[in-house]
Design a protein that fits this description.
Elements lengths: L8 H12 L2 H8 L3 H15 L4 E4 L2 E4 L1 H21 L12 E7 L1 H18 L3 E7 L8 H6 L3 E5 L8 E7 L1 E6 L11 H6 L1 E5 L5 H9 L5 E6 L5 H5 L5 E5 H7 L5 E4 L8 E6 L8 H16 L7
Parallel strand pairs: 3-4, 3-5, 8-9, 8-10
Antiparallel strand pairs: 1-2, 5-12, 6-12, 7-10, 7-11
Helix pairs in contact: 1-2, 1-3, 1-4, 2-3, 5-11
Length: about 300
């Protein structure tokens, strides 16, 4: 395929057509007349050799290829938008732009909030948008990173992409205040016998792998898509949960739980900011990464008992 012969304006039209599934609404969305959008649809149909939109009754539905192109077009649009918004210089005091960061609720709580405070003070025209880490992050990291400005994630889950270290953390357990069997410390037998609350995704893979190497198979009673909910689901029960120490420090004042140390030497957690190589030399991204590293370095130590 010769990209030089392609009209990149068709990417804009294609995205609008696939998302709106209506020629008139798609034209209104991108500022084209109905005849102009119909002409764009005809060109797209010739290029792909497919109808893309098929009339069913009184409305249009996506063809099989149209459904495939729906996500790809959105990603391509984001990549092109970021490509042509690249800058040789970036002055945070006067620039106006948005950075999109993918992160768990844990990372936003212990790091993202402080980053947002610094950005608010130093770059009043800059906006941060945090979105939840998707379950496909390990399977298709390149696609995810190509459409965002960065990913907050510990080492040990993904690799082969540039990253800058932010801060360290460590794993601890939380149990309910007045737990009937757990006193000052957990035992390995407790890990096998007591019911667990777990974060239902695998982004804490190094910690989970370590448990498997120790011969511990958690008896999961509740799983949840939020680290912040773990203490609330432990409170008032016999359950235990593995959680980051920094987050436990924030949540124990509002949940009737207490922190206990693991009965083994838990693998440390090194949080990092990951990005796609296409952003490496962009001035705005360099500022973002340097600011993030500075904020991470200023976080208080985590080695408290």
């Amino acid at each position: 395929m010769n990209l030089a012969r392609l009209d990149l304006n068709l990417v804009v039209a294609l995205r609008a057509l696939l998302e709106e599934r209506n020629v008139t609404r798609a034209g209104q969305r991108v500022g084209l007349s109905q005849p102009a959008m119909s002409a764009a649809l005809s060109r797209l149909r010739r290029h792909f050799g497919d109808d893309l939109l098929a009339r069913v009754g009184g409305h249009y539905e996506l063809t099989a290829l149209g459904q495939v192109l729906l996500d790809r077009t959105s990603t391509a649009y984001d990549v092109l938008e970021r490509l042509f918004s690249s800058q040789a210089d970036f002055d945070p005091a006067v620039e106006s732009r948005e950075f999109k960061l993918v992160a768990s609720d844990y990372a936003v709580s212990v790091f993202g909030a402080e980053l947002a405070r610094v950005v608010h003070k130093e770059a009043p025209g800059v906006r941060l948008r945090f979105t939840q880490t998707p379950p496909t992050v390990v399977d298709d990291t390149a696609t995810l990173l190509s459409a965002v400005d960065g990913l907050l994630m510990p080492h040990g889950v993904i690799n082969d992409f540039p990253a800058t270290d932010l801060y360290e953390d460590r794993w601890v357990f939380v149990v309910a205040d007045g737990h009937p069997t757990v006193e000052e410390r957990l035992t390995r037998q407790d890990l096998a016998d007591l019911p667990w609350v777990t974060y239902q995704r695998t982004y804490d893979a190094p910690a989970v792998r370590q448990l498997g190497m120790l011969g511990v198979e958690p008896r999961v009673e509740v799983s949840v898509d939020s680290f912040q909910l773990l203490p609330l689901l432990v409170a008032g029960t016999r359950r235990i949960a593995l959680i980051q120490r920094r987050l436990a420090r924030l949540l124990t004042p509002i949940a009737p739980v207490r922190v206990v140390e693991p009965p083994y030497e838990a693998v440390p957690l090194q949080e990092a900011l990951w990005w796609h190589p296409v952003h490496t030399h962009d001035a705005a991204h360099i500022w973002l990464r340097e600011t993030a590293a500075r904020v991470g370095a200023r976080l208080s130590p985590v080695h408290d008992g």
